[in-house]
Amino acid sequence: VQLVESGGGSVQAGGSLRLSCAASGYSYTMYRMGWFRQAPGKEREWVANLVMRDSTENYADSVKGRFTISRDNAKNTLYLQMNSLKPEDTGMYSCAAARSGGVYNYWGQGTQVTVS
Q: Which of 39 and 27 is assigned the larger pLDDT?
């Protein structure tokens, strides 16, 4: 499974961005896909995930109500719509895929989001 993120950039506080994660390989067999972010000098944190079987969405408290995770099966693409962005949302955003309910097995390279 290969994951390639895009859509990052620089935006002012209050703005929006939509991140994309294009999946290839046996991505359709994944149990869960998610988004993570890492700010400079900080540990990577989980942002949101989507259970592929039933489309259950889960969000970190810090982004709940502002971010939306979704997918387009026809395009094998996972999205993260980010609204009302804050400077603390700045970081490298990566998507990941898990074969089961445990650890994430596959990771993308990431796309940078900067909010000023």
A: 39
